[in-house]
Amino acid sequence: MIENPLSTVFGSVGVVYGLIMPVVLILLFALFLIASSLSPGAKARGTAQAMYCTVMMAIGVLLMTIAAIPTVTSVLAGESYASETYLGLLIVFATGGCLFLWHDHWMRTLDPASRLVPSLIFLFTIKTIGTLTTLLAGLSIILTFTLGGAEYGWWIMPLT
Q: Which of 57, 84, 92, 117 is close enough to 36 for a disulfide, judged by CB 3.0 to 4.6 Å?
């Protein structure tokens, strides 16, 4: 039993995730709502729905990524998980995909002026993450070959 639950809430981790993150998210929502209201013909309700859909689509992408990374790692390492693990990863991936598609469909029903700013923010955030990932992976491979650190089977990641 926790002797002092307030020390957990107001500790360094609790303050960041329990207090600061919600405030930052509310401020970002307000900032995006103000930026979207500058678009001609945008409605506040439609813009808020578009922001909600954008956040839920990002969570769907995150769930799909969380499920895909262990699967790819096990394939590259030549190790396999138990079938129940693969089933769990498949369920997480399918949940993320359904969440993404459902909110993407809902977002497409909104008027274009309301969804303009949230969809642009989502698009360029995903593009930035993808570009950085590709750039860093390419640099890692090139530096591995250039500096002579590559040995036979270097692509196999040990799981132990």
A: 117
